[in-house]
TrEMBL record, chains A, B:
GO process terms (BP): isoprenoid biosynthetic process
GO molecular function, one term: all-trans-octaprenyl-diphosphate synthase activity
Protein name as annotated: Octaprenyl diphosphate synthase
Keywords: Magnesium, Metal-binding, Transferase
Job of this protein: Supplies octaprenyl diphosphate, the precursor for the side chain of the isoprenoid quinones ubiquinone and menaquinone.
EC number assigned by the record: 2.5.1.90
Source organism (scientific name): Gymnodinialimonas phycosphaerae
Length: 335, 335
């Protein structure tokens, strides 16, 4: 979040508009992550849930429900559901990635142990399913349970293609649709479903969420290289994906554009995981040479445009404008 | 399974009676664990799902539905759901316990990696939720999502009380109700719910499942010490719980009955995890001295009796008799 403009960020405007709903979501989250029998659970989850995540996913559910004129309470439950699913995947991701930091704080697997992260993640998944049953909508259950399966599938796919330098772009898209966009999409879609809006509206919300989610993840993958002009600010937060041998779009495109010598470099560093002093710098240099940081930003922007185009089918409302600005901001923050 | 009587085991009689349904369950399991995008998933799950588990949980759902006169197809979906939940917990348990063998074969975390076990477990959980939504019964969803939360809570509780030699018996009961009996109970209960039976019948099925599950886990914990006269067959399959410092009933009762010297022994071996040559033998000797292997069997039998008593509220039917025999067998196999 390096962009500081005089105007408020779209995320903060949404937060302010949905303030009461967000308070209700936070209360529900704290309430439902409690466990009478296992005090370790709230310890681990509080560490993560209260670590100041931006609550972007639950905010999407709230915003979409409100935008569709929803006046009940179930959007709060579904927003908390979505945050629980997200938090559970974070706990499991940190085990899988052997991460030591998240949001600038030590990860749960480091503070407690991998066992706690696995099992507390399972608990949050189960809590999410309990919560999503409560509104009594089978359609909502269908959407969210499908999203959960797609997320898990995306995570497994990511694991199996890691270190494979022949990963094609559409596999990358599959991975990020699974690990990120599926939950954005479902979070938006259920907002329209509980408001009982027509199919066209629900579909538009889903399309917005998908575009936003894909753009968000592409931007994230770009930020891992320091943004569009990464080299300028090479620091210790840069290159995690390279070290973990993840095949993200900037790398996939650089390999495709590279010569035999460059391919050998990627085969050694990502394919075999043999990384030495200076390799990260060379990798970054190759991305810059082939312009794949900029072209990844352009790809993200195309998904932003898709997201914004979908919004035109929705009611003209200040919330709609904030959602549109939010889509822009996902990529704008890179500059 | 050391008991070989001339008569067929109750489990095998149930299998034979429910043969067509079980074939449908197996087909559905294979079908739903497939993933178009992530071939790693069926590899990992096939290893586990097809490793010749006894399918006891799905069989309970099938048996209870049939016993209640159910004639539809949804019991097959729910049986597969229950097996998916069970398989997911096995995958995660093996990561948590750092196990290397399950059912006499190397575990998935050893054959692939912990990452695959965590993520494929998540995939199976999500698949379970997708499947349980399909019958369209909110009551079934409520029961199974509650069971999933109780399972996760029990697993976390087990983790947090491991190595705590002051663990009381009711905490142990809480742990095994969570990690084992909750799914047995739900598996039975949903059979009655989809058959639309009255509350009394549904409650009786739940009580049967709970009693069976508690007895099953107590028997399992006893088998980890080699059964009621454990010492006679001390071999390498004995003592995993001791090495993992799990507080199971035979140990809890031996500590309660022991003197200061014995307490110091447990504090060193289980409390601190400082285990030396000969400690397992001494631990087993203490359980025998205090008769806690036999008293654990008695405790298991009390739950078997509870399970069988509940069955009297159910229709007189050969399946009911097999369920009753199954409860007996859970403990009888120890002798």
């Amino acid at each position: 979040m390096s962009l500081d403009t005089p105007t408020q960020k779209p995320h903060d405007r949404l937060s302010a508009t949905l303030a009461d709903d967000l308070v209700a979501v936070n209360t529900l989250i704290r309430d439902r992550m409690a466990s009478r029998h296992a005090p370790r659970i709230p310890e681990v989850t509080a560490h993560l849930v209260e670590a100041g995540g931006k609550r972007i996913r639950p905010m999407l559910t709230l915003a979409c429900a409100r935008l569709c004129g929803y006046t009940g309470d179930d959007h709060v439950k579904l927003a908390a559901t979505v945050e629980f699913i997200h938090t559970a995947t974070l706990l499991h991701d940190d085990v899988v990635d052997e991460s030591e930091q998240r949001r600038g704080r030590p990860t749960a697997n480091l503070l407690w142990d991998n066992q706690s992260s696995v099992l507390v993640g399972d608990y949050l998944f189960a809590r999410a399913f309990q919560l999503m049953v409560e509104p009594g909508s089978l359609r909502v259950l269908d959407i969210l349970s499908n999203a959960a399966a797609t997320i898990a599938e995306g995570e497994v796919l990511q694991l199996t293609v890691a270190a494979n330098i022949d990963t094609p772009e559409d596999t990358y898209l599959q991975v990020i649709r699974g690990k990120t966009a599926a939950l954005f999409e479902a979070a938006c879609e259920v907002g329209g479903v509980i408001a009982e809006r027509d199919e066209k509206t629900v579909k538009a919300l889903a399309t917005y969420g998908d575009g936003l989610g894909v753009a968000f993840q592409m931007a994230d993958d770009l930020l891992d290289w320091g943004g569009v002009d990464g080299g300028a600010k090479l620091d210790k937060n840069i290159g995690d994906d390279f070290r973990e041998r993840k095949m993200t779009l900037p790398v996939i495109r650089a390999i495709a554009a590279g010569d035999a010598d460059e391919r050998a470099f990627w085969a050694r560093t990502i394919g075999k995981g043999d990384q030495q002093e200076g390799d990260l710098e060379r990798a970054l240099g190759l991305l810059q040479t082939h312009g794949t940081l900029a072209s990844t930003r352009d790809a993200a922007n195309a998904h932003v445009d898709q997201a914004k185009a979908a919004l035109t089918a929705l009611p003209d409302d200040p919330i709609r404008d904030m959602l549109s600005d939010l889509a822009d901001y996902v990529v704008a923050r890179l500059n």
